[in-house]
Automatic annotation (TrEMBL):
<feature type="compositionally biased region" description="Low complexity">
    <location>
        <begin position="12"/>
        <end position="25"/>
    </location>
</feature>
<protein>
    <recommendedName>
        <fullName>Site-specific DNA-cytosine methylase</fullName>
    </recommendedName>
</protein>
<feature type="region of interest" description="Disordered">
    <location>
        <begin position="1"/>
        <end position="39"/>
    </location>
</feature>
<feature type="compositionally biased region" description="Basic residues">
    <location>
        <begin position="1"/>
        <end position="11"/>
    </location>
</feature>
<feature type="compositionally biased region" description="Polar residues">
    <location>
        <begin position="26"/>
        <end position="39"/>
    </location>
</feature>
Amino acid sequence: MNSPPSRRKKSTSAASTDSTSAANSVNEDISQQVDPSSATITVSAVEVEELSEEEQRDRLHLERRVERAVFEAGKALMELRDRRLYRSTHKTFEEYCKERFGYSRRQPYLLMDAAVVFDNLLEKCDPLDQVLPTNERQVRSMTKLEPHQQQEVWLRAVELAGGKVPTGRIVKDVVQRIMERTQVPNTYQIGEVCQILTKDNPELRGKGGCWAIVSAVNDFSCTVRMWDGEYTIGLQHLKSYNYLPAECKQMQVICDRVAPIYSDSLEETVKSLLQSLGKVNRAYLTAVEEKLLSLIEREYGLIDQSS
Protein backbone atom coordinates (compact mmCIF):
# COMPACT_ATOMS: atom_id res chain seq x y z
CA MET A 1 0.00 0.00 0.00
CA ASN A 2 1.48 3.34 -1.05
CA SER A 3 1.87 5.96 1.65
CA PRO A 4 0.28 9.36 0.99
CA PRO A 5 2.60 12.20 0.14
CA SER A 6 4.10 13.84 3.25
CA ARG A 7 3.14 17.50 3.51
CA ARG A 8 5.67 17.93 6.32
CA LYS A 9 8.42 16.83 4.01
CA LYS A 10 7.37 19.28 1.37
CA SER A 11 7.15 22.03 3.93
CA THR A 12 10.65 21.24 5.15
CA SER A 13 11.93 21.30 1.62
CA ALA A 14 10.35 24.65 1.10
CA ALA A 15 11.94 26.00 4.26
CA SER A 16 15.27 24.63 3.19
CA THR A 17 14.90 26.33 -0.14
CA ASP A 18 14.03 29.62 1.51
CA SER A 19 17.05 29.29 3.85
CA THR A 20 19.34 28.59 0.93
CA SER A 21 18.00 31.56 -0.92
CA ALA A 22 18.53 33.79 2.09
CA ALA A 23 22.08 32.53 2.46
CA ASN A 24 22.77 33.15 -1.20
CA SER A 25 21.33 36.61 -0.83
CA VAL A 26 23.64 37.33 2.10
CA ASN A 27 26.62 36.00 0.18
CA GLU A 28 25.69 38.21 -2.74
CA ASP A 29 25.51 41.21 -0.39
CA ILE A 30 28.91 40.38 1.09
CA SER A 31 30.46 39.84 -2.31
CA GLN A 32 29.23 43.25 -3.36
CA GLN A 33 30.97 44.96 -0.38
CA VAL A 34 34.27 46.76 -0.80
CA ASP A 35 37.46 44.84 0.08
CA PRO A 36 38.20 45.70 3.76
CA SER A 37 41.88 46.15 2.98
CA SER A 38 41.06 48.99 0.61
CA ALA A 39 38.31 50.54 2.70
CA THR A 40 38.66 54.19 3.68
CA ILE A 41 38.11 55.05 7.34
CA THR A 42 37.04 58.55 8.08
CA VAL A 43 38.32 59.94 11.40
CA SER A 44 36.95 63.15 12.71
CA ALA A 45 39.69 65.59 13.69
CA VAL A 46 39.67 66.68 17.32
CA GLU A 47 41.00 70.13 17.98
CA VAL A 48 43.49 70.22 20.92
CA GLU A 49 43.04 73.31 22.98
CA GLU A 50 46.32 75.09 23.61
CA LEU A 51 47.27 76.05 27.17
CA SER A 52 47.04 79.65 28.12
CA GLU A 53 50.12 81.41 29.47
CA GLU A 54 48.70 81.14 32.98
CA GLU A 55 48.05 77.39 32.56
CA GLN A 56 51.55 76.88 31.24
CA ARG A 57 52.98 78.61 34.30
CA ASP A 58 50.77 76.52 36.59
CA ARG A 59 51.85 73.30 34.85
CA LEU A 60 55.54 74.15 35.20
CA HIS A 61 55.06 75.10 38.84
CA LEU A 62 53.30 71.81 39.63
CA GLU A 63 55.91 69.79 37.74
CA ARG A 64 58.65 71.44 39.78
CA ARG A 65 56.78 70.56 42.99
CA VAL A 66 56.65 66.90 41.94
CA GLU A 67 60.36 66.90 41.04
CA ARG A 68 61.35 68.49 44.34
CA ALA A 69 59.19 66.24 46.52
CA VAL A 70 61.93 63.74 47.35
CA PHE A 71 64.40 66.54 48.12
CA GLU A 72 61.90 68.34 50.33
CA ALA A 73 61.66 65.06 52.26
CA GLY A 74 65.43 65.16 52.77
CA LYS A 75 65.24 68.71 54.15
CA ALA A 76 62.43 67.75 56.51
CA LEU A 77 64.43 64.77 57.76
CA MET A 78 67.42 67.00 58.47
CA GLU A 79 65.30 69.29 60.61
CA LEU A 80 63.74 66.34 62.44
CA ARG A 81 67.22 64.99 63.18
CA ASP A 82 68.95 68.26 64.04
CA ARG A 83 66.17 69.41 66.39
CA ARG A 84 65.72 65.88 67.79
CA LEU A 85 61.96 66.12 67.33
CA TYR A 86 61.76 62.34 67.60
CA ARG A 87 63.00 62.26 71.21
CA SER A 88 59.55 62.05 72.86
CA THR A 89 58.82 58.65 71.26
CA HIS A 90 62.11 57.14 70.10
CA LYS A 91 65.65 56.83 71.44
CA THR A 92 67.37 57.19 68.08
CA PHE A 93 66.71 58.92 64.79
CA GLU A 94 67.12 55.63 62.90
CA GLU A 95 64.45 53.88 64.99
CA TYR A 96 62.09 56.80 64.46
CA CYS A 97 62.54 56.77 60.67
CA LYS A 98 62.05 53.02 60.49
CA GLU A 99 58.83 53.00 62.52
CA ARG A 100 57.35 56.25 61.22
CA PHE A 101 58.29 56.10 57.54
CA GLY A 102 59.38 52.48 56.98
CA TYR A 103 62.91 53.56 56.01
CA SER A 104 65.90 51.30 56.17
CA ARG A 105 68.82 52.49 58.32
CA ARG A 106 70.55 54.04 55.32
CA GLN A 107 67.59 55.60 53.48
CA PRO A 108 67.12 58.81 55.52
CA TYR A 109 70.82 59.66 55.17
CA LEU A 110 70.66 59.13 51.41
CA LEU A 111 67.69 61.50 51.18
CA MET A 112 69.40 64.12 53.34
CA ASP A 113 72.60 63.97 51.28
CA ALA A 114 70.55 64.27 48.08
CA ALA A 115 68.77 67.36 49.42
CA VAL A 116 72.13 69.08 49.98
CA VAL A 117 73.19 68.32 46.38
CA PHE A 118 69.85 69.52 45.02
CA ASP A 119 70.14 72.88 46.81
CA ASN A 120 73.66 73.26 45.45
CA LEU A 121 72.45 72.64 41.89
CA LEU A 122 69.69 75.21 42.34
CA GLU A 123 72.36 77.85 42.91
CA LYS A 124 73.86 77.07 39.49
CA CYS A 125 70.72 76.25 37.49
CA ASP A 126 67.70 78.43 36.79
CA PRO A 127 64.81 76.24 38.03
CA LEU A 128 62.50 77.60 35.33
CA ASP A 129 64.81 76.85 32.40
CA GLN A 130 67.22 74.10 33.44
CA VAL A 131 66.78 70.37 33.92
CA LEU A 132 66.96 69.36 37.60
CA PRO A 133 67.14 65.95 39.33
CA THR A 134 63.87 64.13 40.01
CA ASN A 135 65.03 61.35 42.35
CA GLU A 136 67.72 60.53 44.87
CA ARG A 137 69.54 57.92 42.75
CA GLN A 138 70.37 60.49 40.09
CA VAL A 139 72.57 62.44 42.52
CA ARG A 140 73.80 59.67 44.84
CA SER A 141 77.22 59.40 43.22
CA MET A 142 77.77 63.19 43.52
CA THR A 143 77.35 63.53 47.28
CA LYS A 144 81.09 63.22 48.04
CA LEU A 145 82.16 65.82 45.45
CA GLU A 146 82.83 69.48 46.09
CA PRO A 147 79.90 71.84 45.26
CA HIS A 148 81.51 73.19 42.07
CA GLN A 149 82.21 69.62 40.93
CA GLN A 150 78.60 68.62 41.55
CA GLN A 151 77.43 71.44 39.32
CA GLU A 152 79.93 70.52 36.62
CA VAL A 153 78.91 66.85 36.72
CA TRP A 154 75.20 67.61 36.47
CA LEU A 155 75.47 69.99 33.53
CA ARG A 156 77.65 67.49 31.65
CA ALA A 157 75.27 64.60 32.43
CA VAL A 158 72.27 66.59 31.16
CA GLU A 159 74.19 67.30 27.97
CA LEU A 160 74.96 63.59 27.48
CA ALA A 161 71.29 62.77 28.09
CA GLY A 162 70.25 65.02 25.21
CA GLY A 163 68.92 67.80 27.38
CA LYS A 164 66.74 65.48 29.44
CA VAL A 165 67.00 64.28 33.04
CA PRO A 166 70.00 61.89 33.06
CA THR A 167 69.89 58.47 34.65
CA GLY A 168 71.94 57.63 37.71
CA ARG A 169 74.25 55.57 35.48
CA ILE A 170 75.06 58.55 33.24
CA VAL A 171 75.79 60.73 36.27
CA LYS A 172 77.98 58.05 37.83
CA ASP A 173 80.03 57.73 34.63
CA VAL A 174 80.66 61.48 34.58
CA VAL A 175 81.64 61.41 38.27
CA GLN A 176 84.14 58.63 37.58
CA ARG A 177 85.77 60.65 34.79
CA ILE A 178 86.20 63.64 37.08
CA MET A 179 87.69 61.47 39.83
CA GLU A 180 90.19 60.02 37.37
CA ARG A 181 91.03 63.49 36.10
CA THR A 182 91.58 64.92 39.58
CA GLN A 183 93.11 61.81 41.13
CA VAL A 184 95.34 62.62 44.09
CA PRO A 185 98.15 60.11 44.73
CA ASN A 186 97.61 57.92 47.78
CA THR A 187 100.50 58.86 50.04
CA TYR A 188 99.52 56.76 53.07
CA GLN A 189 101.91 54.05 54.23
CA ILE A 190 101.30 50.67 55.82
CA GLY A 191 101.40 51.01 59.60
CA GLU A 192 100.44 54.71 59.55
CA VAL A 193 97.84 55.77 62.13
CA CYS A 194 94.89 57.82 60.88
CA GLN A 195 91.75 59.38 62.24
CA ILE A 196 88.35 58.50 60.74
CA LEU A 197 86.35 61.43 59.31
CA THR A 198 82.70 60.53 58.78
CA LYS A 199 81.67 63.60 56.71
CA ASP A 200 78.00 62.56 56.93
CA ASN A 201 78.81 59.13 55.50
CA PRO A 202 76.16 56.81 57.03
CA GLU A 203 78.39 53.76 56.51
CA LEU A 204 80.90 55.24 58.97
CA ARG A 205 78.33 56.20 61.57
CA GLY A 206 79.78 55.78 65.06
CA LYS A 207 83.37 55.71 63.76
CA GLY A 208 83.99 59.46 63.72
CA GLY A 209 87.19 60.34 65.60
CA CYS A 210 88.33 56.71 65.92
CA TRP A 211 91.91 55.75 65.16
CA ALA A 212 92.74 53.31 62.39
CA ILE A 213 95.97 51.66 61.31
CA VAL A 214 96.67 51.34 57.57
CA SER A 215 97.12 47.71 56.54
CA ALA A 216 96.87 48.10 52.74
CA VAL A 217 97.20 51.06 50.34
CA ASN A 218 94.77 51.14 47.37
CA ASP A 219 94.22 53.63 44.53
CA PHE A 220 91.36 55.59 46.07
CA SER A 221 91.21 54.07 49.56
CA CYS A 222 93.08 52.36 52.36
CA THR A 223 92.32 49.13 54.15
CA VAL A 224 92.63 49.83 57.87
CA ARG A 225 92.54 47.91 61.14
CA MET A 226 90.46 49.32 63.95
CA TRP A 227 89.56 48.23 67.45
CA ASP A 228 86.54 46.30 66.13
CA GLY A 229 87.70 44.92 62.79
CA GLU A 230 89.08 45.74 59.36
CA TYR A 231 87.55 48.24 56.90
CA THR A 232 88.24 49.73 53.48
CA ILE A 233 87.81 53.51 53.66
CA GLY A 234 88.07 56.25 51.03
CA LEU A 235 90.90 58.75 51.24
CA GLN A 236 88.46 61.60 51.90
CA HIS A 237 87.51 59.90 55.17
CA LEU A 238 91.08 59.58 56.53
CA LYS A 239 93.38 62.06 58.22
CA SER A 240 96.88 61.16 59.32
CA TYR A 241 97.90 61.70 62.93
CA ASN A 242 101.49 62.18 61.72
CA TYR A 243 102.79 59.94 64.47
CA LEU A 244 106.44 59.02 64.68
CA PRO A 245 107.34 55.40 63.75
CA ALA A 246 107.69 54.48 67.43
CA GLU A 247 104.24 55.91 68.19
CA CYS A 248 102.71 53.98 65.31
CA LYS A 249 104.14 50.77 66.79
CA GLN A 250 102.63 51.61 70.17
CA MET A 251 99.22 52.06 68.56
CA GLN A 252 99.67 48.73 66.80
CA VAL A 253 100.21 47.09 70.23
CA ILE A 254 97.01 48.68 71.56
CA CYS A 255 95.10 47.46 68.51
CA ASP A 256 96.47 43.94 68.92
CA ARG A 257 95.24 43.91 72.52
CA VAL A 258 91.78 45.41 72.02
CA ALA A 259 90.72 43.74 68.76
CA PRO A 260 90.74 40.11 70.04
CA ILE A 261 88.48 41.06 72.95
CA TYR A 262 85.82 43.17 71.26
CA SER A 263 82.55 41.60 70.09
CA ASP A 264 78.87 42.56 70.08
CA SER A 265 78.16 39.89 72.69
CA LEU A 266 80.20 41.63 75.39
CA GLU A 267 78.59 43.27 78.38
CA GLU A 268 77.68 46.89 77.68
CA THR A 269 80.14 48.23 80.27
CA VAL A 270 83.04 46.34 78.69
CA LYS A 271 81.99 47.35 75.19
CA SER A 272 81.82 51.01 76.20
CA LEU A 273 85.31 50.89 77.67
CA LEU A 274 86.82 49.26 74.58
CA GLN A 275 85.01 51.74 72.32
CA SER A 276 86.48 54.61 74.33
CA LEU A 277 89.96 53.13 73.85
CA GLY A 278 89.21 53.04 70.13
CA LYS A 279 88.94 56.84 70.16
CA VAL A 280 92.03 57.85 72.11
CA ASN A 281 93.91 60.56 70.20
CA ARG A 282 97.31 59.71 71.67
CA ALA A 283 99.76 56.88 71.12
CA TYR A 284 99.63 55.53 74.66
CA LEU A 285 97.25 54.46 77.44
CA THR A 286 97.01 56.23 80.76
CA ALA A 287 97.79 54.26 83.93
CA VAL A 288 94.08 53.78 84.67
CA GLU A 289 93.32 52.71 81.09
CA GLU A 290 96.19 50.22 81.21
CA LYS A 291 94.90 48.69 84.47
CA LEU A 292 91.32 48.42 83.14
CA LEU A 293 92.44 46.82 79.88
CA SER A 294 94.65 44.34 81.74
CA LEU A 295 91.73 43.44 84.01
CA ILE A 296 89.52 42.74 81.00
CA GLU A 297 92.25 40.66 79.36
CA ARG A 298 92.51 38.52 82.51
CA GLU A 299 88.74 38.21 82.76
CA TYR A 300 88.50 36.88 79.21
CA GLY A 301 91.54 34.63 79.52
CA LEU A 302 93.83 36.54 77.19
CA ILE A 303 96.62 36.77 79.77
CA ASP A 304 97.68 34.49 82.61
CA GLN A 305 95.58 35.03 85.73
CA SER A 306 98.67 34.64 87.94
CA SER A 307 100.73 37.28 86.16
